[in-house]
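sry for the spam today, last one i promise. struct tokens for design, 397 residues
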């Protein structure tokens, strides 16, 4: 057997070199990207001097060859980045062999994730993924005046009802639910929600506004794009709707609606929008009633959301395309304002809860496991030209 630890260290080194080769970005949760093991390929050889051949079984099990069962001498696992691990097979102890393969895959996955994090660190370290929760709170942070007292009372009543339900459920189950309520559920026992809401809404409003001020302003949107292909004549990877090797690629199209003459984007599952920022709710429970059934706001950006073809050597591109036909375009944006109260032509407010206004800071493209392939500053993106006078108005923090 070859030295597993040495191979894994070499794999990590190769993966890191691949990532740093093309720029760097951040520590982001692995769940923001695809599981690296989905893109591993497996090869085996019958003897030390023999060639490597694809191993469909992904094991050291014997396979038929001209009517004979031949067990491979070694198995090689190759990651999307090109990092690899080689393990000798032991036909006499298949349980141990499979355990070593499993351990090698786990260590190679960890090495890929670590290398991808190093690759991204300079581009989005510590920046949370766009979430519905944060977008809703940004409406409150920048446009609180659009919610009148009746809306606040309705929201407070919703908070009371939810807290009372959880209190009853906890009492029945004997367990305590952890939630950041404005009012402790036990303090609302025997209260009438409508009457309590009239009394408590000023405190509820003050707490909601306080929490809104703590919402981070910068987020990263991770848009999954497909149709990746290689243009041999120009040596670039094309993707999405790209037609030529020297033109920007629109990876996300806006809705047929505008805000002060600038198109509005609707974020969806393909943009990696999480429900909560970093997995934890930012909103107070009842506030979701104000903003309308948790519909996320639209997003108005100062620049068009485009990317560019990726320069790549042919051999590297072939290896890439053998394992994946998708990329992730990561757009770092800072929310600078929001507006819910004023009309938006062609768009019903009930459909989007208004719009958050964002400045595009930078864009970088990664493979599906998070290794950076290309990056550029916002200045490389075309600015939107409003169709009518005026630009989105940023509101003071």
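last one done:
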């Amino acid at each position: 057997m070859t030295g597993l630890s040495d191979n894994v260290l070499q794999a990590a080194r190769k993966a890191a070199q691949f990532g740093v080769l093309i720029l760097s970005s951040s520590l982001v949760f692995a769940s923001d990207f695809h599981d690296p093991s989905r893109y591993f390929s497996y090869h085996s050889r019958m003897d030390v001097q023999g060639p490597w051949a694809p191993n469909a079984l992904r094991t050291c099990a014997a396979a038929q060859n001209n009517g004979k069962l031949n067990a491979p001498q070694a198995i090689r696992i190759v990651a999307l980045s090109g990092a690899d691990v080689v393990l000798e097979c032991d036909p006499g102890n298949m349980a141990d062999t499979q355990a070593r393969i499993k351990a090698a895959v786990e260590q190679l996955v960890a090495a890929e994730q670590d290398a991808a994090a190093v690759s991204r660190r300079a581009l989005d370290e510590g920046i949370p993924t766009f979430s519905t929760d944060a977008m809703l709170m940004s409406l409150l942070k920048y446009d609180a005046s659009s919610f009148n007292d009746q809306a606040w009372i309705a929201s407070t009543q919703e908070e009371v009802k939810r807290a009372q339900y959880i209190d009853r459920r906890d009492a029945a189950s004997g367990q305590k639910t952890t939630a950041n309520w404005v009012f402790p559920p036990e303090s609302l026992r025997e209260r009438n929600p409508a009457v309590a809401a009239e009394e408590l809404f000023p405190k509820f409003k003050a707490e909601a506004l306080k929490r809104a001020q703590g919402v981070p302003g910068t987020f990263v949107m991770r848009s999954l794009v497909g149709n990746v292909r290689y243009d041999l004549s120009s040596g670039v990877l094309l993707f999405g709707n790209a037609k030529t090797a020297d033109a920007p690629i629109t990876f996300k199209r806006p809705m047929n609606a505008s805000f002060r003459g600038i198109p509005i984007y609707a974020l969806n599952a393909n943009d990696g929008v999480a429900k909560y920022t970093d997995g934890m709710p930012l909103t107070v429970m009842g506030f979701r009633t104000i903003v309308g059934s948790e519909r996320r706001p639209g997003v108005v950006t100062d620049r068009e959301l485009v990317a560019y073809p990726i320069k790549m050597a042919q051999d590297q591109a072939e290896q890439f395309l053998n394992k994946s036909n998708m990329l992730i375009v990561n757009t770092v944006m800072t929310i600078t304002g929001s507006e819910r109260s004023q009309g938006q032509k062609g768009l019903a407010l009930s459909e989007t809860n208004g719009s958050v206004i964002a400045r595009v800071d930078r864009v970088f493209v990664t493979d599906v496991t998070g290794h950076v392939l290309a990056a550029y500053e916002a200045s490389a993106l075309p600015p939107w030209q409003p169709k009518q006078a005026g630009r989105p108005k940023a509101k003071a923090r």
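Residues 144-212 form one domain. ok im logging off now
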